[in-house]
Structures are given as C-alpha cells and as structure tokens.
Design goal:
about 210 residues; alpha/beta; Trna Endonuclease, Chain: A, domain 1; five-stranded mixed β-sheet
Amino acid sequence: MKELEEIIKELPENIRLPIYEAFQVFQKDILHKDLQEIREEIKNVWKAIKELAEAQKKTEEELRKLAESHYKLVEEHRKTRQKLEGLSDAFGYTLEDRAIKSLPEILSKDYKIKVIGKLKRTYLKIGKEYIEVNIYGKGRKHGKEYTIIGEAKSRISKKEIDKFIAKCEKISKKSIKIIISYIFTPQVEEYAKEKEIIIIPSYELI
C-alpha cells in the first residue's frame, strides 16, 4: 500500500488528485472486503495508474513534437524573411543606383532644380543617431539652396511616406523630397503630391 501511495504522489497533479481521492476511499473500504476482492481492486488500481501514466507520457511526447515543429516553422519563417529582405535590398540598391545617375538630368529638365555636386547614398549622424539616406545631396531652385533627400523603394504606401517625411524633418527643415518607386497607386500619388513630394516612376530613370 505504501509503495502504491508513493507512486501516486509522483504522478502529475492533474491526474494525481482524483487518483489519490479514489485511493483514500479504497483504503476506507478495504476493511469490509475479503482478501480476493482486495487483490482484485489493487490490480485494477495498478492498471488504471499504468494507463494514466502511459497516457501522460504520450501527451508529453506529443507536446514535445509540437514544440519542435513550432520551432522549425519559426526558423523557416526567419530564413524566408531574411531571403526576402535580401532580395528587397538588392532591388532597392539597383533602384537607388539608377536614381543617383538619372536625377540630376530629370530634376533639371522637369523641375528646374540644379543638383550641386554629386548625389550619393550615405548615413548622416543626427545627434546620437545615424540615419540611412538612400539619396542625398544639395540642389538649387529659384536661386535658393536646398538639401535633396530621396527614398527609393519597390512599393510605397502612405505609411512609408509619413516615415520618409519624419526622416527628412530630422535631417533638414529646408529640403526637396523625392520618392522613386516601381509603382504608385493613385491614392499614394495624390497623398505624396499633397505633401509636396516629387514622385518619380522607375521607368523614367536611365
């Protein structure tokens, strides 16, 4: 009996309590039963405990397998995201390179803006923060000098425009803002124009 009680104590709590209660009832009833009945009931109790213990093992194994599958899925998602980010960067850099070469002529011809010096891709230190700028340089319009800040992305949303404007405000209060992309939806195009941003489709680049 003592051995049986010790085994019950080692069971997980969710199955230990009901078995322990049944065991207590069994101990009270045992005084009123003959030896054969006691042996039969002990056998049934052992059988029930073994079945529950086996079920618990199977549950733990299934949970372990589920956790492993979840980890593998997360890892695959991470790798896929890295590949997509790498692909996006490659497209972005190609677009930036084309824009840096083409913008001086486009800005001069279509917007009467003269680029001073060369445009470049760079990082600017603003306070303690380094800000990545896709396209950066100086330009002159109507006799006034401005900072040229450009963003090149495969797709543009209103949210991206807001982030770009916030970046420009950190860099310069007097800037010419330019966004280059493969496609602009009518809503995004209208929103950009409202914010006085020059938008240039990729097909206009050299």
